[in-house]
């Protein structure tokens, strides 16, 4: 979502890939999807019970040149 709270839908059913320090999620987005600004990526997983579990928030800024 944007820093202002506007949600942006991203792909679902992401699968971890091997990373340098464990596993990583790679998300590729078209450059036109995100305007310049601050964003929060909230990673939500599904527990064995089927419940959604918030795993972490990641903050980033998009700069366009």
Description:
The chain is an all-beta fold. It has a domain at 1-7 and 34-65. It is built from no helices and four strands. It has a two-stranded antiparallel ribbon. It has a two-stranded antiparallel ribbon with strand order 3-4. The mean pLDDT is 82.
Termini Cα gap:
22 Å
Which value, in Å, is the CA radius of gyration? Answer: 14 Å
Return residue spans where pLDDT drops below 50 for at least 5 consecutive residues: none
Spatial sequence of strands, sheet with the most strands: 1-2
Question: From N to C, what is the helix and strand string?
Answer: EEEE
List the total number of helices. 0
- The percent range for strand residues is 35-45%
- Count of β-strands: 4
By helix and strand content, what is the structural category?
mainly beta
The mean pLDDT is: 82
Shape: globular
Characterize the biggest β-sheet. Answer: 2 strands, antiparallel
The helical percent reads under 10%
């Amino acid at each position: 979502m944007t820093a202002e709270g506007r949600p942006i839908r991203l792909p679902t059913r992401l699968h971890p890939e091997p990373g340098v320090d464990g596993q990583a999620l790679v998300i590729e987005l078209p450059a036109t999807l995100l305007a310049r600004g601050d964003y929060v990526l909230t990673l939500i997983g599904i527990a064995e019970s089927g419940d959604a579990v918030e795993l972490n928030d990641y903050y980033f800024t998009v700069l366009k040149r």
